[in-house]
């Protein structure tokens, strides 16, 4: 869920929607005083846009064909994007102290979690539509819909951060400092902290998170055949090991010895695997079972997608 998009797909993203580079954020007078007091003026000026080039580098052509696509390699921007996805999921999960519950779960909130939880790493080089783009290209007004209470103040911040996460910086010309994206995000967060008070969080409850639905997959005939072959191989190895041990005492491979016992155990597990049964019923006599009598929709416990969208 937190892997960077280009790393996930194993290639540099070249679509035109990844080519717009926003300008480096500028701090207010008070925020800048705090920044330069900690890091100095030289660092602040060194990360500003130069000669009209955002983030100090020549941006890619928005609509032209890219003749030579750069080879994918690790970039510091990938680390920032991973932190971004982790931050978004954490902020969507916490509940502000001024909100005791949600009588009705909004569809926007459920769809946002659906996008995060259904993300996967594709196999092969085929096309893959990353569902997380629903969040990355979200309008500011739509970000506000995902939060409740005082947490709505985070909507504009996440919208601005998303604009800097979107681009494929590997397409830019020379001039990018290694920590240019770290700098942009840190400036946005610093400005937010200067402009807003802390938002107290609820100490006991989180917002409900829909659980991804996992369908049970019936083993195919080829899988069963493969497993059967493996069992036969294990049994043959066990028998051969026993025969060799009988002919060569002291080799440690006799039936009942350490090696043979291990192989026999593997054969038994492969032939007759035990089914694990989990009792999901909560003990009503426990403190956790008596803590709250509110409905699951507003209590903060995980729910399924179906319950969430009902």
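Sequence proposed for the structure above (310 residues):
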């Amino acid at each position: 869920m937190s892997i960077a998009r280009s790393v996930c797909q194993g290639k540099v993203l070249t679509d035109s929607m990844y080519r717009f580079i926003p300008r480096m954020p500028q701090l207010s007078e008070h925020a800048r005083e705090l920044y330069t007091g900690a890091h100095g003026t030289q660092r602040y000026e060194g990360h500003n846009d130069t000669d009209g080039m955002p983030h100090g580098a020549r941006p890619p052509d928005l609509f032209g064909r890219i003749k030579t696509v750069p080879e994918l390699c690790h970039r510091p921007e990938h680390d920032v994007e991973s932190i971004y996805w982790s931050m978004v999921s954490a902020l969507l999960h916490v509940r502000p102290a001024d909100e005791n519950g949600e009588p009705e779960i909004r569809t926007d909130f459920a769809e946002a979690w659906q996008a995060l939880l259904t993300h996967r790493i594709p196999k092969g080089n085929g096309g893959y539509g990353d569902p997380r783009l629903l969040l990355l290209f979200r309008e500011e007004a739509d970000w506000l819909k995902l939060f409740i209470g005082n947490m709505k103040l985070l909507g504009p911040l996440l919208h601005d951060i998303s604009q800097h996460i979107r681009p494929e910086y590997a397409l830019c010309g020379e001039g990018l400092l290694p920590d240019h994206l770290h700098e942009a995000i840190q400036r946005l967060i610093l400005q937010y902290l200067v402009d807003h008070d802390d938002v107290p969080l609820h100490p006991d409850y989180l917002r409900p998170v829909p659980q991804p639905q996992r369908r049970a997959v019936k083993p195919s005939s080829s899988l069963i055949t493969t497993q059967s072959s493996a069992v036969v191989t294990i049994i043959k190895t066990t028998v051969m090991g026993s025969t060799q041990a009988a002919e060569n005492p002291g080799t440690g491979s006799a039936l009942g010895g350490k090696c043979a016992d291990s192989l026999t155990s593997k054969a038994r597990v492969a032939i007759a695997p035990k089914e694990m049964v989990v009792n999901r019923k909560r003990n009503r006599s426990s403190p956790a079972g008596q803590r709250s009598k509110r409905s699951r929709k507003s209590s903060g416990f995980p729910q399924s997608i179906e319950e969430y969208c009902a």
